[in-house]
């Protein structure tokens, strides 16, 4: 059944066992038969914030179809900032060929440290690109366990130390109680002119502290696919800062996304029919 | 001696044997004792166009210190275009969070062909990045000989065929009689919505034919660090095309460039003193 059928016949919602890709907010409490929701997104923070969803007995599964586009997006933002392409864009808008302005304050990446917080499928791909660009990689993960694509791995408690060494910092964290405020004043104070990229969740960064750090150079440039608040309201100082790139939360979007997410659902549906374990089961306690 | 000394004492120029980093235009004919010029740039087309320079018996050497920054720059331009970061920049300038506009018309790179024309130190590094992003690589070089970082290599006579398959095309060619007009109407006709990047020399592309191809979609986006004419004049249509990124010829610039170029000169000077072969000798017939 489709959403419009449920809205037309209110008795239907109580009989639905499986749902894809999202269950509308107001229907969670009425979904008494729901046993499994396959989300078509990765982040489930908004979903788990719906009244009735966190405590609902249904299994929730998510999809992981965006590592490739997230990697391309993160590196696009990083290289735009380090190679002053955002400066070139502004000169282009004025129709001015100004080699001197465009080439002032460039940053090299070779032999510099790339710090990646959240070292899963996306983080490790971002690391592979960094390595081929000659960077050294320090990863931050909950366990801090070694990873073949990282020169060093540390736990989140050592993040300020990792940030202090990094030229480029990539945040790829879900929104959980552990990651909110992951980058606050203390962490920004540790940074030495790093480029900070975020495509996880906006809540990982204390936004007003970031604005200060961008002003005084602790953060040299920021590329933000996610913000807090999100959407970023009109008139927010981040919009007009010359060393900030805002991309409105689409790092994971790519041609074929819907088809790929649907394939994940179909493969899981086969597992469900056979009584097998589903892929991408969300741990509600961890929040991802 | 420095340039100001030569200008102060006109007898000096006739006695100079070695010159770094450039010899002013008007002095070439008077530099009768010059035996070696170490340029601090890679491209020598402008230098060889100076009256008296092409036929001068002095050895000319160039430097190759920019493969790393050129690679970062080329990929920054490529990913800006495929990930719509240029669209996001425009939305940011308006202070508007518009996910739909920004995420419309994105391009994926995995399993797509990356075509690189000019497969030297820079081209092969660009290829390595493409491979880690999951692309297949087709290289174009004079000899078309196999290369470990290319899935296929072809000679320049097969370029239209290579362009036809490519999602991303990177031009890294010197300005020579063979490369002028390398991408003309015939080659643009072969392209299927490719992203075209150029950081070699502007003369490789027929500019007015490119403007047409950008308008009708044969070329989906262009990132140009070099143009023809260069500098791009005020009011040129390329300035305001929505699918074009112009960076004013600084892809090779990076912090430490001058020091690195000077080190090349010093190392060559030691070779010169010992009577050894210099590194980076320009072949005047080939023009690079």
Give me the number of helical elements of chain A. Answer: 10
Could you tell me the number of beta strands of chain A? Answer: 10
How would you classify the quaternary structure?
A: homodimer
Find the structural class of chain A using helix and strand composition: alpha/beta
- Unreliable parts of chain A: none
Radius of gyration of chain A: 21 Å
* Overall helicity of chain A: 25-40%
Query: Which strand-content bin applies to the residues of chain A?
Result: 5-15%
Shape descriptor of chain A = globular
Largest sheet composition of chain A: 7 strands, parallel
Q: Overall mean pLDDT score of chain A?
A: 96
Would you list the SSEs of chain A in sequence order as H and E? HEEHEHHHEHEEHEHEHEEH
Order of strands, main sheet of chain A, comes to: 6-5-4-7-8-9-10
Please report the two chains with the greatest interface, counting residues with C-beta closer than 8 angstroms to the partner's C-beta. Answer: A-B, 58 and 58 residues
**Terminal Cα separation of chain A, in Å?**
28 Å
In short:
The structure is a homodimer of 288-residue chains. By secondary structure, chain A is an alpha/beta fold.
């Amino acid at each position: 059944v489709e959403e419009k059928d449920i809205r037309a016949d209110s008795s239907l919602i109580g009989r639905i066992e499986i749902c894809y890709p999202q269950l509308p907010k107001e229907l969670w409490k009425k979904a008494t038969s729901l046993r499994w929701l396959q989300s078509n997104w990765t982040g489930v923070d908004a979903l788990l914030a719906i009244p009735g969803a966190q405590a609902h007995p249904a299994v929730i599964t998510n999809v992981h179809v965006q590592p490739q586009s997230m990697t391309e997006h993160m590196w696009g933002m990083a290289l735009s900032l380090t190679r002053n392409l955002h400066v070139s864009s502004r000169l282009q808008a004025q129709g001015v060929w100004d080699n001197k302005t465009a080439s002032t304050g460039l940053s090299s990446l070779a032999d510099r440290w790339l710090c990646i917080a959240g070292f899963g499928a996306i983080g490790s791909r971002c690391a592979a690109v960094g390595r081929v660009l000659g960077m050294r990689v320090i990863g931050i993960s909950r366990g801090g366990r070694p990873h073949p694509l990282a020169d060093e791995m540390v736990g989140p408690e050592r993040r300020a130390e990792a940030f202090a060494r990094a030229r480029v910092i990539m945040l790829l964290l879900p929104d959980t109680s552990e990651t909110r405020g992951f980058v606050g004043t203390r962490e920004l104070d540790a940074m030495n002119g790093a480029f900070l990229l975020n495509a996880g969740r906006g809540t990982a960064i204390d936004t007003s502290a970031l604005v200060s750090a961008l002003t005084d150079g602790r953060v040299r440039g920021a590329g933000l696919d996610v913000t807090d608040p999100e959407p970023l309201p009109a008139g927010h100082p981040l919009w007009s800062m010359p060393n900030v790139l805002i991309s409105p939360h689409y790092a994971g979007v790519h041609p074929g996304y819907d088809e790929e997410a649907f394939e994940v659902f179909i493969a899981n549906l086969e597992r469900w029919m056979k009584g097998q374990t589903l892929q991408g089961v969300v741990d509600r306690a961890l929040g991802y």
